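Thread: adenosine monophosphate complex, take 2
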Amino acid sequence: MLGLMQDYPLLVHTILDHAARNFGDREIVTRAVEGGIRRTTYAGLHSRARRVAKALVLEGIEPGERVATMAWNTDRHMETWYGIMGMGGVCHTVNPRLFPEQVIYILNHAEDKILFIDTTFLPLVEAIKDQLPLLQKIIVLTDTANMSDQSIANMIAYEDWLSEVDDEYQWHEMDENSAAAMCYTSGTTGDPKGVLYSHRSNVLHAMAVNQADALCLKSSDSLMPVVPMFHANAWALTYAGPAVGAKLVMPGAMMDGESIYELLDTEQVTVTAAVPTIWSMLLAHLEATGSMLPTLDRVLIGGSACPPSMMDKFEDYYDVRVIHAWGMTEMSPLGTMCTPTYATEKLSPEQQRNIRLKQGRSPYLVEMKIMDDDNNELPRDGKSFGRLLVKGPSISKAYFKLDKQILDDEGWFDTGDVATIDQFGFMQITDRAKDVIKSGGEWISSIDIENVAVGYSGVIEAAVIGLPHPKWEERPLLIIVAEPSRAVSKEEILSHLEGKIAKWWMPDDVVFVDQIPHTATGKISKKDLREQFKNFRFES
Ligand code: AMP
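Output below.
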């Protein structure tokens, strides 16, 4: 027997309807790519998103077809998101930091006909345009006055394109399982893989993120998503914010410490989110200028492990609560967030700190477990570590146009991460499975060593890789980027590590480099480092 409740499909654009209806005058503030600050409201965004939808219909875009965006976090980018999804199209966010060959591959693989783009990225598209046979139109997210003089066929300024239509448009009626958005993983091996979110998965994920024990967004919050909209759904913040009517502050193209601080300050931001690299730049700016963060309440840090020294600085000095989070593109992306429970609040301050450094616990709608190599589930004891598997309604079951089974027989997805889970349900990542260091039959966590190393004054960035060793199979090499003004030595680093990590985890050597290679999503590229140091030999 079926229940007798209304059939109300979970569609992404109903979030914007809700925001416009109930919080129509709530502000959306953008640092415009052209310079200056632009202000609109949820009512304004709702109207323009419907114009985008109507104009796309006139362009002949059919429901289910992919429409690409390559753009910074701005109000215009949000209009295109909601407009594309609301007319039944699939909003395909393209990461401009990928290699040009990868951008060519994914635009062709997704069969994008239209591309919305910021002027910043036009040189990239001009260089590859001849290899994009399916692309019919390029809509530049600006007005005529700021239009680029790049010579690309079928290019039009967004404001001109939009001026042709009004906002008389009814959202397309569709099933909640219809595809809404698409994002390719920046896989380190093989071609990028297309993750295809549905309306239902995005709505459920936004609601999970908004739970009080997760990000707990409120209409009184001023939310600045610094994490780019071209990376993993902008961690759902572009849905979660409107769902509660939070003010939105969109940082545009400027991610440096000074620009981020300026918006945090002038727009009285209370919640923000980004990868640790962004926060290192902000903290350096604060330190250099003596500025404080009086309105900021919480900062969501994920994408890579949050170093303890970063958490301490935010919490102890600036009085900002850090919420460490973990996830991946295939998970929409948030899988865990680290907030206390009734049980952990009773622990000693030292124990609580150790727990808060973990990647966190899963909200309702994410299940996780850890498995050993023989596929036995490991205990939740905070010590046993194994492959991390996940399940839930906002987690991929397949990749776009890829005929490959990615779930096991019981429907679990292997994240490729290695982790522990403790008795309170808090998960801690040890490594990517392919980055784990195997020494004498045991595993060494590179993340733990890196976290301690970056806590040493003068260390800007640290990476640990495993290199072959005749006796132990592999041993850790610690690679450091140090402040040029501080002559940090190998001996200083090793003595800083002593006592903070297991003796047998101590790196066999420490090398100093000017920079560490990163992937398109800002993570340390261990693959490139292993290549760079493939001829390195430990002194015996
Ligand atoms: P992406 O799909 O590009 O978002 O990358 C997902 C991967 O980033 C995960 O599988 C993890 O390996 C890594 N990751 C994300 N968040 C964290 C975190 N808080 N700590 C450590 N690794 C993380």
